[in-house]
Write a structure and sequence with these properties.
- The complex is a heterodimer of chains A (488) and B (458).
- Chain A is built from ten helices and 23 strands.
- Chain A is α+β, with helices and mostly antiparallel strands and 488 residues long.
- Chain A has two domains: 12-244, PmbA/TldD fold, CATH 3.30.2290.10; 252-484, no CATH class.
- The longest helix of chain A has 19 residues, at 226-244.
- Chain B is an alpha+beta fold.
- Chain B folds into two domains: 6-228, PmbA/TldD fold (2-Layer Sandwich); 235-458, no CATH class.
- Helices cover 22% and strands 37% of the residues of chain B.
- Chain B has nine helices and 20 strands.
- In chain B, the strands form four sheets. In chain B, strands 1, 2, 3, 4, 5, 6 and 7 form a seven-stranded antiparallel beta sheet that branches. In chain B, strands 8-15-16-17-20 form a five-stranded mixed beta barrel.
- Classes of the chains: A alpha+beta (488), B alpha+beta (458).
- Chains A and B meet through strand 1, strand 2, strand 3, helix 4 and strand 4 of A and strand 2, strand 3, helix 2, strand 4 and strand 6 of B.
């Protein structure tokens, strides 16, 4: 609320220069300090982010919150070593001090010299320009939206007992200054709407939760469009009601159909993490040394693409200033690519792929996914379902996890059904799928023509750092998946 | 509460300014939290330093409450800029934001019952401030080398990581309470890889303490991590079946975590917990007694007062299977028509909420080996992955890895399976509790055996 409302800042670089009195000369001097030791690379990462949220329960918005996060991280790299220091105080003095701390990673004195910064500041493209930063949208509009959602959800079904909804806005400005002359700034809006309902069956006393969310890097006002939020509420209520009648999930190995969109979390857990450069450089991934080998069935192509306009996982530049791109990970079943940040790319003799991300200035960058999805195939989704006599149809998932080294992954369905005689049968509760990353996509037998990306709610955790991501999948049939339930 | 020290005076000054700013901006009540911290993290891998990261941070959070018809409107703002103009601006923003929310009859700060004592909880050892980065790196290398020297099959690692932190936490409110305390946090973590033929396995061991002198010896951390990775080599799925499941003292705390989520006051008043209406009822086997105590000396969840200034205390959550108490802060207590249990937790930028302090399950007499010998045929679970627990229904289904037990002995390692049941049935059928209570976080448990669960496998 302290920033001028209205236009996007024309140049995020001048934002930092004006607000914190950091001109090119001072930035270069800080890098020169780091380079007084023998280091391969040094960078400064400035961040100024505003977050706000309002939350509703029991039909009222009980509280709001607003945070300003600002700080600088200074990094020095020497070989495999990284020194990092960060401070929430953005001053020339604190940046200098942090540079001295970070360079301590190297004991040897360096070549010295002076860093010449590139002239270009803002990124050449903007995947997510907004008229109004989401944190500048009047809070009353957010409160009203949640109120409408509550009334609508309760009007849909008398079994809806609780509605919890929240609207979260973020406006993040970053500046990366690197010892190779990199000077890169970005403005990253992010919005999210969450709707959770609790439904109760008055006859059986059964109680279930339904959740749906949506978001991305776009105007907050889009969330206020009836055509956007009503389908979301419809879905949350539908899932809760469906689950009231759910039966125990079978246990054992079966053929599984994954619905389109969010079930792409399979790719994120089973494949994506194992292809991050750090694990492969260290040879700790189940995918280490598998480049060029078959890891999926014919027809399976998986990409990571940070350049999709407005998506939650997209970025103009990553948190090391590298422009994002589309990286093919698996091409027609063959492993062809890894996700790289600068450090691991350099050590592996590869190119950075624009996947160097960090949660905030207080964190060291790591190779991370952006939007990870499988390209569409040719099969009709209805025919894929009809092709299974006895199996499981999993439509939505809660979360997942992977053991990078053994490759074993798991993810938990929040909406799933039995498939009986090629038709969708009873909803099942608590289905967990488990498998082996390098193996699971070799069991893909049908790929739908209906690729969908998720609605923009994914958050990925790694080494204690959370970053927003996206996933996507066409309807997919996988044979012989282990399903963890309680029924025989 | 070291309010008389220079550190305490500095925090008191800022918190007082925040409360005054909120009042002059129109708040009828307010509270403020200030957290200042210094931290160091370093990881080594093989013979090389992987990274060293150092930080100094401070955050102030202000909650403003504005009285309205039959309740309060409230909002929170936070900032790392502690200058007077910034604090005043954040206080004004908190009031403005609060005015946009609805009146909530249950909202408000607590007016009485504040902590008045100053127990020595051994949360911080001043000598730890003198530890140099090189000392920290030496510990990490000692763990890393011990892990690698355990066995020739330990050929790689994700590294060994050391962490040290020092925090000062201050809380004050418009009802006149002010308190502050200092905590230390020290940890050492090692994650080696064991490789044999086609099998590649990782595992970890860690030690965490408030004072560095309380940490397990680095070489022991590395060795135990290596032994855990080695015993997973050659793991395979087993056929789908039903069997007794032993959770070791590393995986059993996750069950306590699920219980903690279900006895949390917020889940109770929202009726999003299967235990919401079970207070006073038997919810677990009579072998189960669960305590929450915020005043255990030196423990990670200990603090002299909670996030609303209430004294922390000992709460018996489950006694011999009977659900005695929920874990409540002021808000959830008001919603349930009762009193706070001293379980408020509060970050600088978030509303108070209820959370366990130190939560543990009282140990029994048997060693883990004795429980294994007594089991005959079953599964010892040593790692769980995934988030397959539904607190509303108690339905439980998670990915697992562990060791198969045949004839009362460890037979072979198992992976790529799930275990499933319903927490209500699982707790009722716990038929063995070990003596090996292990503290690696604020929630701790000894080994436990659940009489029967469904295993899904090959």
């Amino acid at each position: 609320m302290t920033e001028p409302t209205g236009q996007r800042d024309p140049d995020p670089l001048s934002f930092f220069q004006d607000r914190f009195d950091l001109d090119d000369k001072r930035l270069a001097t800080a890098l020169d300090t780091a380079l007084e030791r023998e280091v391969d690379y040094a960078d400064l990462f400035f961040e100024y982010a505003t977050h706000d949220s309002v939350a509703l329960e029991e039909s009222i918005v009980k509280s709001g919150s607003r945070h300003i996060e600002q700080g600088v991280g200074v990094r020095a790299q020497a070989g495999e070593r990284q020194g990092y220091a960060h401070s929430d105080d953005i001053t020339v003095e604190s940046v200098q001090l942090a540079a001295k701390t970070a360079r301590a990673i190297s004991q040897r004195s360096g070549r010295g010299g002076s860093v010449a910064l590139a002239k270009t500041g803002a990124s050449a493209r903007d995947l997510y320009a907004v008229e109004t930063p989401p944190t500048e949208v009047p809070v009353e509009r957010k409160v009203d939206l949640l109120g409408e959602i509550d009334s609508y959800a309760r009007s849909l079904d008398s079994r809806v007992k609780q509605v919890m909804a929240s609207a979260i806005s973020q406006h993040r400005q970053v500046l990366v200054v690197g010892s190779d002359g990199t000077l890169s700034a970005d403005v990253q809006p992010l919005v999210r709407l969450n709707v959770q309902v609790v439904a109760c069956d008055p006859r059986s006393g059964a109680r279930e939760i339904g959740y749906q969310g949506m978001g991305g890097r776009f105007e907050f006002d889009r969330l206020c469009l009836v055509d956007e939020w009503k389908p979301l509420v419809d879905e949350a209520v539908r899932i809760a009601i469906v689950n009231l009648d759910s039966v125990p999930c079978p246990a054992g190995t079966m053929n599984v159909v994954l619905g389109p969109g969010w079930p792409g979390i399979l790719l994120h857990e089973a494949i994506g993490h194992g292809l991050e450069g750090d694990f492969n450089r260290k040879q700790t991934s189940a995918f280490s040394d598998k480049l060029g080998q078959r890891v999926a069935a014919d027809g399976v192509t998986v990409v990571d693409d940070g350049t999709l306009p407005g998506r939650r996982g997209s970025l103009n530049v990553d948190d090391e200033g590298t422009p994002t791109r589309r990286t093919v990970l698996i091409e027609d079943g063959i492993l062809v690519g890894y996700l790289q940040d600068r450090l691991n790319a350099r050590l592996m003799g590869m190119q950075p792929t624009g996947n160097g991300r960090r949660e905030s200035y207080a964190h060291i960058p790591m190779p991370r996914m952006t939007n990870t999805f499988m390209l569409a195939g040719e099969d009709d989704p209805a025919e894929i379902l009809a092709s299974i006599d006895d199996g499981l149809y999993a439509v939505s998932f809660g979360g997942g996890q992977v053991d990078i080294t053994s490759g074993k992954f798991v993810f938990s369905a929040s909406e799933a059904y039995r498939i009986e005689g090629g038709r969708i049968g009873a909803p099942v509760k608590g289905a967990t799928l488990i498998g082996n990353g390098p193996d699971v996509l070799t069991r893909v037998s049908r790929i739908g023509n209906d690729l969908e990306l998720d609605r923009g709610v994914g958050t990925c955790g790694k080494d204690g750092q959370s970053v927003p991501v996206g996933v996507g999948l066409p309807t997919l049939r996988i044979d012989g998946v282990t399903v963890g339930g309680t029924a025989g | 509460m070291s309010a008389g020290t220079p550190v305490g005076e500095h925090a008191r000054e800022i918190v007082t300014r925040a409360l005054a700013s909120a009042a002059s901006a129109g708040a009828n009540a307010a509270d403020a939290v200030m957290v200042e911290s210094d931290s160091l993290e370093a990881r080594v891998r093989g013979d090389e330093v992987d990274f060293v990261s150092q930080a100094r941070e401070h955050t102030l959070g202000i909650r403003a409450l504005v009285g309205g018809e039959g309740g309060f409107r409230s909002a929170i703002t936070s900032t790392s800029d502690l200058s007077s103009p910034a604090v005043e601006r954040m206080a004004r923003e908190a009031v403005a934001l609060a005015n946009a929310t609805a009146c909530d009859p249950a909202a408000g700060i607590l007016e009485e019952g504040f902590a008045t004592d100053d127990p020595d909880l051994e949360l911080f050892d001043p000598i730890d401030l003198e530890v140099e980065v090189d000392d920290q790196l030496r510990d990490a290398f000692a763990a890393e080398h011990a892990a690698r020297q355990t066995d020739p099959r330990i050929t790689n690692s994700e590294g060994s990581q050391v962490g040290a932190g020092h925090s000062r936490i201050a809380y004050g409110n418009s009802a006149g309470f002010f308190g502050c305390y200092e905590t230390g946090s020290h940890s050492l973590f090692s994650e080696p890889l064991a490789v044999m033929d086609d099998s590649k396995q990782r595992d970890y061991w860690m030690t965490v303490a408030r004072r560095r002198s309380e940490l397990e010896a680095p070489a022991s951390v590395g060795r135990r991590a290596a032994e855990r990775a080695l015993r997973r080599l050659g793991a395979k799925p087993i056929a789908t079946c039903e069997a007794p499941i032993i959770f070791d003292s590393i995986t059993a705390p996750s069950l306590l975590g699920h219980i903690a989520a279900c006895v949390n006051g917020y889940a109770v008043y929202r009726e999003t917990s299967y235990l919401a209406e079970r207070q006073g009822e038997i919810i677990a086997s009579e072998l189960i007694t669960i305590i929450d105590d915020g005043r255990l000396p030196g423990r990670l969840g200990s603090k002299p007062f909670d996030g609303e200034g209430q004294p922390t205390r000992r709460n018996v959550v489950v006694e011999r299977g009977r659900l005695e108490s929920f874990l409540l802060d002021g808000y959830s207590a008001r919603k349930l028509g009762t009193q706070s249990t001293g379980n408020a937790t509060r970050g600088a930028g978030s509303l108070p909420t209820a959370a366990p302090t130190n939560l543990w399950l009282e140990p029994g007499d048997a060693t883990l080996d004795e429980i294994i010998a007594d089991t005959g045929r079953g599964l010892l679970v040593t790692e769980l992955i995934g988030m397959g627990f539904n607190p509303v229904t108690g339905d439980y289904s998670r990915g697992a890895a562990g060791l198969w037990i045949e004839g009362g002995e460890i037979a072979f390692p198992v992976e790529e399976i799930t275990i499933a049941g319903n927490l209500n049935d699982m707790l009722a059928s716990i038929d063995a509790v070990g003596s090996d209570l292990t503290w690696q976080s604020r929630i701790a448990s000894p080994s436990l055996r659940v009489a029967n669960m469904t295993i899904a496998g090959a």
